């Protein structure tokens, strides 16, 4: 009791808090109270990375974004001190008020029927695709079935994405079932891998060395800052800008769309590598079993096609269609503002709005984009069901305007143009021979003139 009373009276400075930023000494502050979460980080449902990336900082905005009101009652057990120089910016005040308003309105709990509709459509299309393969000998029916499979993967990806942010089902057990079904079993992509990757992306949105969604070296580089061979703190490796990287990046604006057609291969590999690694993966057995299910049904289905030519085209068709989803993930961030370094807890709202852009579309297209056309809103309120994102967008726009922050909303075409220009600008900078890298014979052969 005496120790607890002493802790309540103890005060530390922000400078002192910043010293506790290591895995074995991890403190955070929330609304002026300091918490030692060193041990909790190891079992944190959102993974260890979000806490490590924000260690030694005030994380109030990120906390209210990711946690329901019921989570506050669990904090007292970790309390160690008060933050004596705690301050809050005007934009954070408005943001937290907005979260509280949405919570009082019950928006975080009203999920609508989008997931039920999505699952129903997926089941119907899956049945049509299987019927097209088994009951028809027509080449074009088979190709249409392949395209339908890609479309099913897109919708499955949206459900998996949403289920990772909030319960899309009536309880957590059914939600977990939906995750494994739509992720591992249906698409062959580990939901555990996705959550680990996606949580890091949200916390460190558009940080070149902390956000895994921008770390595509040696294939792509959205900024010339990658040319200094940054270290990826997510993948725990150096992203070398070597001769091979220079060659590939120099033509990235031309290879971008073809690569997007086969982006799933990378996701397959990343999922398997994580599940076979020594990193902590909750319910690893479920994850592996779900992946095995995918690699049983999909190859068997392909084998029912009459020849290897059609089997290859079927795979290409399904991969190319679902490549639209991978493209959209890139459009939302590639041409937005980027930075180098750890994310900071005291500019949460600013970093989310600067690092994302919305894709304007008609309401009838919301089902196709899975809600992520409202990327700014989703990043600010990741627990908010997608059915509310369109309704809150005018509120977010006004708040950005009030605080002189960017709110970018462009058409799908304009987003593609912006992304292409970003990639081309970096590609041209990669060809700058005043910044040499070790010689590469392929590069010199292709780029020798005169």
The DSSP helix count reads: 20
Distance between the termini: 82 Å
Strand content: 5-15%
Helix percent reads 40-55%
- pLDDT < 50 runs, ≥5 residues: 438-450
SSE string, helix = H, strand = E? HEHEEEHHEHHHHHEEHHHHHHEHHHEHH
Q: Report the oligomer.
A: single chain
Estimated radius of gyration: 23 Å
Mean pLDDT: 91
Spatial ordering of strands, largest sheet: 1-5-4-3-2
Query: Biggest sheet, open or closed, and with what strands and sense?
Result: 5 strands, mixed
Q: What is the strand tally?
A: 9
Which structural class should the secondary elements be placed in? Answer: alpha/beta
Basic shape: globular
Subcellular location: Membrane
InterPro entries: Cyt_B5-like_heme/steroid-bd, Cyt_B5-like_heme/steroid_sf, FA_desaturase_dom, Fatty_acid_desaturase
Keywords: Heme, Iron, Lipid metabolism, Membrane, Metal-binding, Oxidoreductase, Transmembrane, Transmembrane helix
Pathway: Lipid metabolism
Write a structural description.
This protein has 450 residues and is an alpha/beta fold. Helix content is 55%, strand content 6%. It contains 20 helices and nine strands. The chain has helices at residues 2-9, 14-17, 49-53, 60-66, 90-104, 114-135, 139-165, 172-187, 191-203, 243-249, 252-260, 263-275, 284-303, 308-331, 348-354, 366-369, 375-380, 389-402, 412-430, 441-447; strands at residues 11-12, 21-22, 25-30, 33-36, 79-83, 231-232, 237-238, 358-360, 409-411. Strands 1-5-4-3-2 form a five-stranded mixed β-sheet. A two-stranded antiparallel ribbon has the order 6-7. Strands 8-9 form a two-stranded parallel sheet. The radius of gyration is 23 Å and the shape is globular. The N and C termini lie far apart (82 Å). The relative contact order is 0.12. Residues 438-450 have low confidence and may be disordered. One of its GO terms (biological process) is lipid metabolic process.
